[in-house]
Write a structure and sequence with these properties.
This protein has 196 residues and is an alpha/beta fold. The chain has a single domain, classed as Vaccinia Virus protein VP39 (Rossmann fold, 3-Layer(aba) Sandwich). Helices cover 39% and strands 21% of the residues. It contains 7 helices and 7 strands; from the N terminus they run H-H-E-H-E-H-E-H-E-H-E-H-E-E. Strands 3-2-1-4-5-7-6 form a 7-stranded mixed β-sheet, with helices on both faces. Helix 2 runs parallel beside helix 3.
Length: 196
């Protein structure tokens, strides 16, 4: 996957990384920033998706589509698609441009609107990456877990970087007897869960 990333995808990843870095340094308001994952986290979630069982793959929180590009590599490898959910219109516009320029529209389905409402329509999930507003992590998690297949993988971002504000949520997941889970110190901290 990583040895054959098309140049147009690399170019878009680099472009989004530049915007993300600028956003972090120039005082861009939090909701307007891309707030994307680092490259190492992108590779990590791509590997986990590639190792997931049969079923549907979803991402909660598209932003401009950087993490989705990493997931699209695994989708192409597996002959699957990834559904990604985004609420904010300005991010949807950026994500559509990302998917078009990187030529991944054949493996990426962008779902516009509130993930908490849209998720109720999907079952048979085998992979889920959660990187949305932290205030709804618990609600998203509770919607996703019963919709996952046995052996399915959930990855939740920002677990170390937002550890204080997510303390109760992290404790809940680590003690949830429906999943085996571990915190992985990569990027901003990933909570990885496997459905029992």
């Amino acid at each position: 996957m990583f040895h054959s990333i098309p140049q147009n995808m690399k170019d878009r990843m680099d472009y989004l990384s530049l915007i993300d870095q600028k956003d972090r340094n120039d005082g861009t308001p939090r909701l307007s920033r891309l707030r994307q994952i680092p490259e190492e986290t992108g590779k990590f979630i791509s590997l986990l998706f590639a190792s997931s069982p049969e079923g549907k793959a979803i991402e909660i929180g598209t932003s401009a589509g950087y993490s989705t590009l990493w997931l699209s590599l695994a989708a192409k490898l597996l002959g699957r698609t990834v559904m990604t959910f985004e609420l904010l219109e300005e991010k949807i516009v950026l994500a559509k441009a990302t998917f078009k320029e990187a030529e991944v529209e054949d493996v990426v389905q962008l779902i516009e609107g509130d993930a908490l409402e849209n998720l109720k329509r999907y079952n048979n999930l085998s992979f889920c990456f959660i990187d949305c507003e932290k205030e709804i992590y618990s609600d998203v998690y509770e919607l996703v877990v019963p919709r996952m297949v046995t052996g399915g993988i959930i990855v939740i971002d920002n677990i170390i970087s937002h550890g204080d504000s997510l303390k109760d949520f992290i404790e809940k997941v680590l003690n949830d007897n429906r999943v085996d889970s571990v915190i992985v110190p990569i990027g901003k901290g990933e909570l990885v869960c496997r459905i029992i």
